[in-house]
């Protein structure tokens, strides 16, 4: 298995609209998607488009959001995960398991904010770095 | 001012060679540069090449390394900064100052690990996210 493109960098923030305003106003990165709620994922999400990748802004949604604990430790916000594209998410999951890595949650791929299946690999397997693997968008 | 490409994501680790081995062995990202010491920056650096960007692995070098404090708070390692390319680093610095952002250090651009001038913007200006701006490599 070999990862492909860096699809996006996940950045957790307490307020997505404020963060979009900063990326647009301070850095001129003014192409962003509408903010969308994903109740089953526990997050609100918007993407800031860059020339070669994207920033995925994540705001907690609901009390058991996976982003809550992160913001407790980092109240202002901060970098949350890296997401790489893979050609086949099931093959990638099987390769991760075969190599002894820990796939978060049930271990089964599920549909993420891009509408394609994803898995997350525990940070302990990558020197503290939370890694998302995403089926290449068609 | 408008940022360009996401040149790299900076990831701090306690041991660069171990991290390179993980990105190669677990994720198949086996194209990386030799590790190089930058004593004046207080870091050892290697780049893992991705299809559309790079991961900059950072290991502290010397007692006053800027990465030391980060690893004290995150002993396993973790995401450290995002680096965007800009066409003119002095114009970008002037734009940041004019907008009230805090440029770290002396405020003057200095030569980073890519051999081109860079500045860093304080995380307080970007919702906890440390941002590097880099003159586009020629």
UniProtKB/TrEMBL annotation, chains A, B:
PROSITE patterns xref list: VOC (PS51819)
InterPro entries (UniProt xref): Glyas_Bleomycin-R_OHBP_Dase, MeMalonyl-CoA_epimerase, MMCE/EMCE_epimerase, VOC_core
Domain VOC: 5-136
GO biological process: L-methylmalonyl-CoA metabolic process
Keyword Thylakoid: no
Parts forming coiled coils: none
Keyword list, A-Z: Lyase, Metal-binding
Taxonomy, superkingdom: Bacteria
GO function term, MF aspect, one: metal ion binding
Family: Belongs to the methylmalonyl-CoA epimerase family.
Protein known as: Lactoylglutathione lyase
Organism: Maricaulis virginensis
């Amino acid at each position: 298995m070999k990862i492909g493109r860096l699809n996006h960098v996940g950045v957790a923030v307490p307020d997505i609209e404020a963060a979009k305003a900063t990326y647009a106003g301070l850095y001129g990165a003014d192409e962003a998607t509408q903010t969308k709620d994903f109740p089953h994922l526990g997050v609100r999400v918007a993407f800031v488009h860059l020339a070669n990748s994207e920033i995925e802004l994540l705001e907690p949604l609901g009390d058991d959001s996976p982003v809550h604990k992160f913001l407790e430790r980092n109240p202002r916000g901060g970098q949350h995960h890296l997401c790489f594209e893979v050609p086949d998410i099931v093959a990638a999951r099987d390769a991760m398991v075969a190599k002894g890595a820990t796939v978060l949650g049930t271990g089964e791929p599920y549909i993420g904010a891009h509408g394609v299946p994803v898995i997350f690999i525990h940070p302990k397997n990558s020197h503290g770095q939370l890694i998302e693997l995403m089926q290449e968008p068609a």
